[in-house]
UniProtKB/TrEMBL annotation:
Domain of life: Eukaryota
Name assigned to this protein: Centromere protein L
Keyword rRNA-binding: no
Region of interest (Disordered), ranges: 1-23
Main location as per UniProt: nucleus
GO CC field: chromosome, centromeric region; nucleus
Keyword Phosphoprotein: no
Location relative to the cell: Chromosome, Centromere; Nucleus
Alphabetized UniProt keyword annotations: Centromere, Chromosome, Nucleus
Family note: Belongs to the CENP-L/IML3 family.
Organism, as annotated: Rhizophagus irregularis
Amino acid sequence: MSKRKDDQKKRKRSVRSNEMEEGQREITAELDSDIFLNKTFLLYRCTPFYKFEHIKFTQYGKELHNFITGQMLNRIPLVYDNGEENDFISEGKVVELFISKIKLSNWNGTNGMPIGVEIKFKPKGPAKEQIFHLIFLPSIVSRDFAPENSPFNHYPVILIKAPQRLANIAIEWFETRFDCRICRYRLESSHLKKFVEELANISFTCDDFIQTKPFELTFTIPDISEIKNIKLRISLVDIKRLYNRSKEQSDSQQSGIAERIDEHFFECLRIKLSSLILSKISNHAALVAGEGKLQIFAGLLSPTFTVSLLNQLVMFTR
């Protein structure tokens, strides 16, 4: 009986060792800008990494793979585990994990390119393999406290597309490994208004913008429990008309697109949108929510939209 138990323990250790070693081989795959499209990302903010080196991507990938696998094999209960998602993660395994720079045209950051973590995950049973991502956006301007030979690297914004348990395990590893702090990134109403400007101005450059999906602006009403929000839909043609009207005014009277929309609805409906909280915007190109969500849709101008939106997300953290 004792010998049988010893054999079972050896087999378990062997299985665990084999699973841990699956991610040890060299992975040279690269990521491109398509990684950003047609996914709903949760947004996070991050303090600077300590001693994060690009030449060690392969090593970091192995360490993260082993850490995630170890958490799953040990079935360590976490306070944020919940129901079906917990079962989905605990009963599956990481097939492959690698870290790579992301090829993103026209990214003008002084601190390198965005970095992506790709996790190929196989749930237990007949379910198909799924791919999840963590994307780290570098700071755009040099930080005063970081001289040329500084051990710090700053990636102030993280985009995550993964089940919450898997995301939290990965976050725990990054926080421990690089002595940083990662938390959710909430966007203010003023940030969303800036995104309205960006999305509209880029859309105007498209020849067939008349056919595009209308803008949908969702406003939250503070201190009124009976009405949670108000949704406004306005075509890009009407936004262009308001924009042109603003340009005809003197420089001192000109206002941005978001301000012109506010003024227009007040003139027509006596609704003072500036007193409400802009909580979500969406159109044919993207969806951005104040709770910290981003989705960029594939399209003719998606490369331009992608760079513009990501740049703004980083700039807002300054």
